[in-house]
């Protein structure tokens, strides 16, 4: 059996560039479709559409700049609990000196106290939505959007959510 000839240096370079492009492009595309829950957590999470579907669903009807929409998603508190963030009876003392930083891929960021996220302390409903009016969120709003119930205007609604970071203030 005759060995195959070695491809030329130019062909090897092109093949290497194609392979590198495939390796790099896939994680970037996947990264854009996920939300990372990290920071002061015991079990960091990577949430994608399939994992979000495993959580109990919530529906919220909110006014969004004069138009009423129905958003479906998951309580952020359920995601935080899965990540090991103290909530409910465990949320007391120094743990209350914690905030939640929610970031979008467009650079928009908002901050919540941990108490606002905890249904045992607040009546505010905050969900990570993946649908609007029964349809997936548009690319410029999704695939995930933070929806905050009872805010008088949607200033803390974060489009294209990419990260939920838990930060404890230790002095």
Q: What would you say this structure looks like, in words?
A:
There is one protein chain. By secondary structure, the chain is of the alpha+beta class. It has a single domain, classed as Oxidoreductase, molybdopterin-binding domain (Sulfite Oxidase, Chain A, domain 2, Alpha-Beta Complex), CATH 3.90.420.10. The strands form two sheets. The chain has a five-stranded mixed sheet. Strands 3, 4, 7, 8 and 9 form a five-stranded antiparallel sheet that branches. A hairpin with a 2-residue loop joins strand 7 and strand 8. The relative contact order is 0.19. About 4% of the residues have low confidence.
Q: Give the low-pLDDT segments.
A: 25-31
Instruction: Describe the global form.
Output: globular
Helix/strand class: alpha+beta
Major sheet description: 5 strands, mixed
Helix content range: 10-25%
Alpha carbon gap, first and last residue: 72 Å
Q: Looking at CATH, which topology would you report?
A: Sulfite Oxidase, Chain A, domain 2
| Sequence of strands across the biggest β-sheet | 2-1-10-5-6
Provide the succession of SSEs.
HEEHEEHEEHEEEE
Question: What's the tally of helices?
Answer: 4
CATH architecture: Alpha-Beta Complex
Number of strands: 10
Strand content: 25-35%
Radius of gyration: 21 Å
Number of structural units classed as domains: 1
Question: How much is the average pLDDT?
Answer: 86
What do we call the CATH homologous superfamily? Oxidoreductase, molybdopterin-binding domain
CATH uppermost class: Alpha Beta
